[in-house]
Structure formats: structure tokens, C-alpha cells
Recover the amino acids of this structure.
């Protein structure tokens, strides 16, 4: 078995959403699976002494335009949510609970549901009631999901995932590692495809 493609994402990252819609198919074309990793961009930004591009007035308008254009280019639906960005630690804690107790398929399904909900329907993932409704829509017990995101054990699990991401060199999202080679950004798709097809170049 070839090693999986490592895929770090944040539920509030538009480029993570777009990449989440192509990474599974791309990996499958080359006999790979995907290891999804939910993180908080704020942690990686702090470690790298960076800020979100939308926090800079000179970059914000361009970034918002590019989010929508990149989604159109990839052929995925997109609606710019407001407010944006939002804290997504609760959705990420549910992800790790699913990953550790039900497996990667269940966690990835939750990730796709959360990303699509935020970036196509503006579902407020930082609102407890909205997140519980999304959990129910996704076939989860909404009350159990709420207990999970308030549980210190799952808070610590996300903290450890963030620390591991920083230790790996992750400084943004989406971030991929293929056979030890790092790729940052939704726009690295063609390079990842070639690497998977041909190996190092």
C-alpha cells in the first residue's frame, strides 16, 4: 500500500473547501487514500508569524474575489459567508472525535459536510445551535456532538493535532504532504498530480 496523501484543512478556509472537493478523486486516480487533518489556522499563523490575507485591507478585496474565482475554476458551488472568517474549533473537535472513534471515512464525511455548509449555505459553524443542526443533518446525535466539543479530552485532541501540524511545518491551509514532500495551497493541484503520477521532479 502506498502511503496516504496528508491533507490539513481548516473549516473556515475557502481554499481548504475547494481542495476538499478534488483531493479524494485526485488521490484515488493514483491508488492513494487521503488522511484528513482538521486544524486551526490561527495556531499555524501564530507559529509562522503570519496573518490571514483578509486581515490586510490591501489584500482583502483581491482575496475575496479569488476565493470565488477559484471555486468557479474548479466547478464547485461557492457563496462567500459573512461573517468571515469564524472560529471553528467546535467543528474540528467533532472531526477528531469521529476520526478516533469511528474512522477516517466518518471524519472526512463530517469535514465535507461542514465545509460545504459554511461555503455554500453560510451555516455559522461557530454557533452551537447551527452546528447541532448540521450534526443532525449529518446523521450524528446532536447532543452527543455538543458534549464532545465541550469535553476537555477532545479539546486536548485538537490542541495536539495543531501542535503536530506546526511540528510538520504546516503554516497554512490547505496543506498537503505526499511521500514527505510538502505542498501548500489549492493552486498546487497540478504539481501534486504530477508527483503522484511520476514521483519527484
Amino acid at each position: 500500500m502506498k502511503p496516504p496523501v496528508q491533507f490539513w484543512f481548516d473549516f473556515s478556509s475557502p481554499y481548504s473547501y475547494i481542495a476538499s472537493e478534488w483531493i479524494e478523486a485526485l488521490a484515488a486516480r493514483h491508488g492513494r487514500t487521503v488522511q484528513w487533518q482538521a486544524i486551526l489556522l490561527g495556531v499555524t499563523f501564530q507559529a509562522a508569524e503570519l496573518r490571514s490575507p483578509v486581515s490586510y485591507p490591501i489584500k482583502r478585496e483581491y482575496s475575496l474575489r479569488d476565493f470565488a474565482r477559484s471555486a468557479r475554476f474548479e466547478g464547485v458551488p461557492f457563496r462567500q459567508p459573512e461573517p468571515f472568517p469564524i472560529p471553528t474549533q467546535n467543528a474540528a473537535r467533532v472531526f477528531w472525535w469521529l476520526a478516533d472513534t469511528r474512522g477516517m471515512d466518518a471524519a472526512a464525511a463530517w469535514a465535507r459536510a461542514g465545509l460545504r455548509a459554511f461555503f455554500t449555505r453560510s451555516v455559522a459553524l461557530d454557533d452551537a445551535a447551527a452546528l447541532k443542526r448540521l450534526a443532525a443533518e449529518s446523521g450524528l446525535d446532536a447532543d452527543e456532538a455538543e458534549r464532545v466539543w465541550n469535553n476537555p479530552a477532545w479539546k486536548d485532541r485538537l490542541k495536539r493535532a495543531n501542535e503536530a501540524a506546526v511540528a510538520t511545518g504546516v503554516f497554512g491551509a490547505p496543506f498537503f504532504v505526499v511521500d514527505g514532500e510538502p505542498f501548500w495551497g489549492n493552486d498546487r493541484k497540478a504539481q501534486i498530480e504530477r508527483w503522484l503520477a511520476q514521483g519527484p521532479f
User: Anything to note?
Assistant: The chain has one domain: 5-198. The beta strands are 5-9, 34-38, 175-178, 181-184. The radius of gyration is 16 Å. Residues 57-74 form the longest helix (18 residues).
